[in-house]
Amino acid sequence: TTHRFEAHSTETLVGTGDDLRKARSPITHARRITAPLLVFHGLADEVVPVEQSRALAQANPAVELVEYPDEGHGFRRPANVEDQLRRTEAFLAAKVLGLSG
Fold first, then answer.
1. CB environment 42-59: b (16+ within 10 A), e (fewer)
2. What does each C-alpha distance from 45 to 9, 17, 53, 91 come to in angstroms?
3. Phi then psi dihedrals of residue 83, to 5 deg
4. CA–CA separation, 63 vs 54, rounded Å?
5. Phi, psi for 8 (deg, rounded to 5)
6. What φ, ψ does residue 66 adopt, rounded to 5°?
7. How far apart are the C-alpha atoms of 31 and 3, rounded to whole Å?
C-alpha cells in the first residue's frame, strides 16, 4: 500500500515486480551505509510508515533514529522543530566535525 500522494509514482520510481522492488529498496542496502545518518520520523506520519525508518535503524548501527509521537509527515510543533534543530546541530558537530560537548 502507499499514500495517495505516491499512489501513481511507485512503479515509476521503484519499478514493478517483487524482485526489482527488493533490489531497489533502501533497506536492502542499509548495511552499506558507512557514514553516520540521522533520521527523524513523526509517529503520526500517514505518508511514510515508521516501520521503514525503524527497519533502517535496526539494520545499521550508523543510523540514529529520533521519533516524535505527535508529528506527521513534516514537523509543525515548535518544540519538536527546536528539538530537531538542536539534535541536528549536535549530530553534525559530533559526527562530522568531531567536536564534543
1. beebeeeeeeebebbbeb
2. 19, 26, 11, 23
3. -60, -45
4. 10
5. -105, 5
6. -120, 125
7. 27
pTM of the model: 0.77
Q: How many residues does the chain have?
A: 101
82 vs 71: CA distance, rounded Å: 13
- Cell numbers for 19: 524482485
The three-state DSSP-derived secondary structure of the chain is CCCHHHCCCHHHHHCCCHHHHHHHCHHHHHHHCCCCEEEEEECCCCCCCHHHHHHHHHHCCCEEEEEECCCECECCCHHHHHHHHHHHHHHHHHHHCCCCC
33 and 64 Cβ atoms separated by less than 8 Å:
no
Q: Dump pLDDT digits (tens) for 28-73.
A: 888 888 889 999 999 999 888 999 999 999 989 999 999 999 999 9
